[in-house]
Design a protein that fits this description.
InterPro entries: AMIN_dom (IPR021731), Cu_amine_oxidase-like_N (IPR012854), MurNAc-LAA_cat (IPR002508), N-acetylmuramoyl_amidase_3 (IPR050695). It holds the Pfam family AMIN. The protein has ten helices and 29 strands. By secondary structure, it is α+β, with helices and mostly antiparallel strands. It folds into three domains: 129 residues, Copper Amine Oxidase, Chain A, domain 1 (2-Layer Sandwich), CATH 3.30.457; 109 residues, Immunoglobulin-like, CATH 2.60.40.3500; 173 residues, 3-Layer(aba) Sandwich (Aminopeptidase), CATH 3.40.630.40. Strands 25-24-26-29-27-28 form a six-stranded mixed sheet, with helices on both faces. A five-stranded antiparallel sheet has the order 5-6-7-8-9, with helices on one face. The protein has a five-stranded mixed sheet with strand order 18-14-15-23-22. Helix 7 packs antiparallel against helix 10. Bound molecules: zinc ion. The site of zinc ion has 5 residues, from loops.
């Protein structure tokens, strides 16, 4: 689809460093094009209409050196850029680009004598990287670079598993690409990591130690087709940016970490222990701001819970009597817990994995220990004899017993399965963590009756809710 458009979609090239932005004038808005502030008239301010950022078209395209023409009678703006002719009509949400109809999220509007159009449309059609800082009421636009720094390949950060991105999976199916968000660009400036995306993305951020890293997984994403024209990305879908101007970060690496689900991973090699604040306004730009630490998980008075979906990636865990994999059950319940925890204003959480990946056991422990988490909950399902059935809660260190009892109470009631008790066992993740830690076995995949329930939405919803209730009770947040 949109074949003709693809050539125009130069998308986002984030090589230019953004300028330090001054305070926006009270009530006023700003547009920076390649670091230069454009003069906006009183009527030509940036506006937010139904969630779409709208910019005055003339000032921008004239600055770019394009020819702009306004026909008052038909209320049509014609923009000519080399071989491309764009026609926009006020109050019509369909634009014509070289005769091809392009749908815009919001129709152009006439404000006094100024036509404003959706920022995203301008970016896509003119090959600009665009972003909107809602706090500063500032639009940033960057024209693509004409050459690329290039450089050697960098290894994808596969945790410590040694796996190459994509080596286990079947690859993206044709047609599936439409559901994936495109990563248009990745850049680092003002001590901030900037990620341009063309759809809503829910990132998963965590830290790893030895060496210190901040990891951002972007589920259901891929690199835009045009990504490599603007920046360093090799044929194995790996790239990096050397950071020299900011002492806290030495390098930003990125790779297509998983094909199924397609996940882009960005790793910041850190010189300090820090996580920064992740800002995601779902407006096409995800920012990790290392100037801010206020929202570090757990550092804001909130409790921090680490949820660990057992196994993953190359490690399927137990295989059920019907051939299903434990890792999928664990992840599914974990993601349901995540959704519920998002609604809890007093709890921050970090997942050790949010997709089909395998952080090593020591990685999982390090995430929790480095963040000084308050709780660690590992989610599993068990396997044993065909007759074994029910739920168990494991702990190792005595300071975890109280948590184990509370979590087990809710695991039994929410699962409706046989109570096989709270058990003490020396398991890596419950032993090496430094906070109360438990491992939940949510039923037996080797048992026909348990197994038939474990993969149902209803069972998983109930168990996830039970886990969150247990966390809240233990933390005294009920
Ligand atoms: Zn397991």
């Amino acid at each position: 689809m949109k074949k003709g458009l693809v050539a125009l979609l130069f998308f986002v090239m984030w090589f230019a460093l953004f300028p330090q932005t001054g305070q926006a004038a009270a009530g006023g808005t700003s547009i920076y094009l390649d670091g230069n502030k454009l003069e906006l008239s009183k009527n030509g301010q940036v506006q937010n209409i139904n969630g779409s950022v709208m910019i005055p078209i003339r000032v921008v395209v004239e600055e770019l050196g394009y020819v702009v023409d306004w026909e008052k009678k038909t209320r049509t703006v014609t923009i000519q850029q080399q071989d491309t002719v764009m026609k926009l009509v006020v109050d019509q949400s369909t634009a014509l680009v070289n005769g091809t109809k392009i749908q815009m999220p919001v129709a152009p509007k006439l404000v006094s004598d100024t036509v404003i159009v959706p920022l995203r449309f301008v970016g896509e059609q003119m090959g600009l990287s665009v972003s909107w800082d809602n706090k500063l009421k500032t639009v940033y636009m960057v024209t693509p670079p004409t050459e690329n720094g290039g450089g050697e390949a960098s290894p994808g950060d596969g945790g410590d598993t040694g796996s190459t991105p994509g080596d286990t999976d079947s690859g993206t199916q044709p047609g599936q690409t439409d559901n994936l968000a495109n990563i248009g660009g990745i850049s680092f400036s003002d001590n901030r990591l900037l990620i341009a995306v063309d759809q809503t993305v829910t990132p998963n951020i965590f830290t790893m130690a030895n060496p210190q890293r901040v990891v951002i997984d972007l589920p259901n994403t891929k690199f835009a087709d045009t990504f490599s024209t603007g920046q360093n990305l090799d044929s194995t879908q790996n790239g990096f940016i050397d950071i020299t101007d900011y002492p806290e970060v030495s390098k930003v690496r990125y790779s297509l970490y998983s094909n199924n689900p397609s996940t882009v991973r960005i790793v910041l090699d850190m010189n300090v222990v820090k996580m920064g604040e992740l800002i995601n306004d779902n407006d096409g730009l995800i920012i990790l701001d290392l100037n801010k630490e206020v929202s570090n998980p757990g550092s804001n008075g909130k409790k921090l819970v680490v949820i660990d979906a057992g196994h993953g990636g190359t490690d399927p865990g137990a295989i059920s009597v019907t051939g299903k994999k434990e890792k999928d059950f664990n992840l599914s319940v974990t993601l349901k817990v995540q959704e519920l925890l998002k609604k809890e204003t007093n709890i921050d959480f970090v997942l050790t994995r949010s997709s089909d990946t395998y952080p090593s056991l020591s990685d999982r422990v390090k995430i929790a220990n480095d963040l000084n988490a308050d709780l660690f909950i590992s989610i599993h399902a068990n396997a044993g004899s065909a007759t074994a059935s029910g739920v168990e809660t494991y702990y190792t260190r005595s300071e975890s017993l109280a948590l184990a009892k509370v979590m087990h109470k809710y695991l039994v009631s929410s699962s409706g399965l046989t109570d096989r008790g709270v058990r003490s066992k020396s398991l890596h993740v419950t032993r090496e963590t430094k906070m109360p830690a438990v491992l939940l076995e949510c039923g037996y995949l080797s048992n026909k009756s348990d197994n038939a329930k474990l993969y149902t939405e209803d069972f998983q919803d109930r168990v996830a809710a039970g886990i969150v209730k247990g966390i809240k009770e233990y933390l005294g947040l009920q």
